[in-house]
Write a structure and sequence with these properties.
Rossmann fold, alpha+beta, about 190 residues, four-stranded mixed beta sheet, 4 helices
Length: about 190
């Protein structure tokens, strides 16, 4: 009979031990660019609203502020992943310059800060601070500048055994929301 209470207590502790083991043994997971750009239905919707003056006229310029993911812990957004996500999104809505080094405008992006928990034993909330600038290439005139903070929370159920996976998913979703907000603002710019 004394084995039963010990067994039931150990069964109650098992989920906590599994989560702790996963948290302590995780490896860093870099973000995946294909998960950070606009979703296909957002691309289709925005493509219909992209003004003629921006169609095929936006060249992607400087992309900075990212960081490489540590191989031991966490999840970060690299400059290259950010560049790919932005480029894919610009292409998806029809704004990307059609030939290299062409286009009337240049879009610059800078990741100012990535706020994330050191450990995400339950849900993972990430806040992403970005700065975007759209410059007319011929004149250097600033057409658009915006700093934005967007956050996303990935729930425990999205990746139950891996807090690094929860951080990666939250990073990707926060950047996807930021790019979506950027492009929605660009299509409304009063540019002639």
């Amino acid at each position: 009979m004394p084995v039963r209470p010990a067994l039931s207590v150990s069964l109650l502790l098992l989920p906590g031990l599994v989560a702790l083991t996963g948290a302590l043994s995780g490896c860093g997971l870099p973000t995946e660019p294909q998960n950070m750009g606009l979703l296909p239905y957002d691309q289709l919707q925005l493509r219909n609203f992209t003004p003629e003056v921006l169609r095929g006229q936006v060249r992607l310029g400087t992309v900075a502020g990212g960081a490489q993911t540590s191989r031991f812990w966490g999840s970060k957004i690299s400059d290259e992943a950010l560049r790919i996500a932005l480029d894919d999104s610009l292409r998806g809505v029809g704004m990307a310059a059609l030939l290299p080094d062409t286009g009337r405008f240049e879009l610059q992006a800078k990741l100012l800060h990535l706020e994330q928990p050191w450990l995400a034993p339950a849900s993972a909330q990430v806040a992403l601070y970005m700065e975007y600038r759209l410059v007319e290439r011929a004149t250097g005139k600033l057409m658009y500048q915006r700093q934005m903070r967007l956050a996303h929370t990935t729930e425990f159920s999205a990746a139950m055994l891996d807090p690094n996976e929860r951080l990666r998913l939250a990073n990707e979703a926060a950047l996807r929301r930021s790019i979506n907000a950027l492009l929605r603002e660009l299509v409304e710019l009063p540019i002639s």
